[in-house]
Each structure stands twice: as structure tokens, then as C-alpha cells.
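Figure caption, in words: inputs first, then the predicted bound structure.
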Amino acid sequence: MKIIDGKLISAKLKEELKEEVEKLKEVGIVPGLAVIIVGNDPASKTYVNSKEKNAEKLGLYSVKHQLDEKISEEQLLKLIDDLNNDSKIHGILVQLPLPNHIDSKKVLNKISIEKDVDGFHPENVGKMIVGDKAFLPCTPNGVIKILEYENVEITGKHAVIIGRSNIVGKPMAALLLERNATVTVCHSKTKNLSEIVNLADIVVAAVGRPNFVNADMVKEGAVVIDVGINRVDGKLVGDVDFDSVKEKASLITPVPGGVGPMTIAMLMYNTIESAKRRGGI
Ligand code: NDP
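Bound structure (NDP present):
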């Protein structure tokens, strides 16, 4: 069994990205990322601060818009419009979840697809599904980078994803299918979940329930990727019962220090990619 070091993989990727940013600066291009956060949710604030810090470390131009919880949908849409037209900005990210009085779909759809570095715009999602060049959603694409880094064979393997959200489960299925895996997607209505997960060569857990996947559910030698981030008594835990599952898995990601750091690295990757595209590089 090997524990995958997501921090190390993301650090290597960020090192490459930093060099790329330096080269872009030589030709007068500074990739710019705007992050919008509405309200004071502590978890969202932590994510946004980390994104901002990482952007600055890589030499990106980074702007944070911290907005009041009571901001109107119209005001938020106006800000996105302004950022869509701001030539210094190549990537716009709206931290989810948004307050209930704001229609998240409407907000995400407002982001110009050229600046949709989260890859959530339906047009980008459509492009991903048909295999066209698109901004790929950061978390599932980060999982793919982990599998590639660890030389995990994907072609012909049975991948079982637990979770079907638009942010993780569904795009994860599309990316694994694109790489020739046989993909099964499970969700809360799935029957015989344990038996299905037992068939998996690659398990991706994106459920949002602490320690949901236990050793009995996992086949000997499976690769286990834990996307979950749950807070239990102030501690971060994944969706996989790490201590028991690690005894059966051939490769496993920990929480924290697995998929999480890759998500941020992929956001930086998309922002730099966007700047390169606009600069015709
Ligand atoms: P959602 O709540 O949107 O989706 C959870 C999915 O799990 C749903 O499809 C749901 O099924 C399914 N599910 C819930 N309960 C069960 C069950 N008992 N059996 C089978 N399936 C079940 O979550 P997200 O996809 O947004 O996130 C998943 C986890 O990943 C969370 O812990 C989140 O914090 C984390 N996350 C981590 C990121 C990172 O950077 N590492 C980034 C994004 C998320 P149904 O559709 O039927 O309701």
C-alpha cells in the first residue's frame, strides 16, 4: 500500500506553473484571477484565502471580492459583468455555496466561458462531454493528475464513483470515461452499493459523509481516491475510513493532503491556460 502525497504532487505542478508565469511575464502577460465570496462562511473563507495565497505565490495578479451576505443578485451579476470586461482578469471564480436568495445557476452562467476557470459553465461542461478543449473542473481534473502521476492504468479498469454532483461526481465520470475506464456512478438511491464498490479497480468517494467507505466495501488492491472534506470535532476527515481501507488499497489518498491541494493547483493551471489562450500562446 502506498499513501498518495497530494501536497507533493501539487507542489511539483505549482513549481512548473510558477516558471510558466515568469515566462509569460517576459512577453507582457500577467495571468489574473478574481475570486468572489459572498457572506462569512468560515470554510468558504478558508478556501478563498488559500486560493488567493496560492495565486500570489505563483506570481498571478489576484483580486478578492468579499461581498456582504445581503448583496442582491443583480449587484453580483453586475460585478461579474465588470470582471468579464476587465482585461487584467483571465479567470473568475465564485465560491459556492451562495446565499439562498441568489440563483447560483444564473450567476455561474453569467461568467464568460473564456474566464470560467472552475469549468462549471454549461457550455464548458458540454465541451468536456464531447471531448473538446474546455476548462475542466478543478477537483476531478486534479484526481486525473494524481492518477497520471502515480502511473495508474485507467484504460479498461472499472472505476466506481460514489456521488453525482455537478462539481465532482458527474465530471469525474466524464473524465474517466474519456480515458477509457468502465464507469459506474453511485448515489443515494443506489441499491447494493457495497457490492458495486467491491467491483472497483478505482474508487472515487465524493459523498460528503465522514468515513462512509469502509474496508468491507473495497476490493483488495483497489486504488482509492477520497474527495470528501468533512469537519468532525474540528478535525478534517474524508469520506473513506482511512485506517481500515489503507490495509486493502494499493494506493490511497489521505485527507487532508490528498485531493484538496490538487484542486487549488488545477485552478491556477486553468487561470494560466486562460491567459495563454487570450495571448494566442
Ligand atoms: P454533494 O452533496 O453535492 O453530493 C454528494 C453526493 O453523494 C450526491 O450525489 C449524493 O446522492 C451522494 N450520496 C449521499 N449520501 C449517499 C449515500 N448514503 N449513498 C450513496 N451516495 C450518497 O457533494 P459534492 O459532490 O459537492 O462534494 C462531495 C464531498 O467532496 C464533500 O465532502 C465536499 O466537501 C468534498 N469536496 C472536496 C473538494 C476538494 O477540493 N477536495 C472539492 C469539492 C467537494 P444524491 O445525488 O442521490 O443526493
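The longest helix spans residues 6-26.
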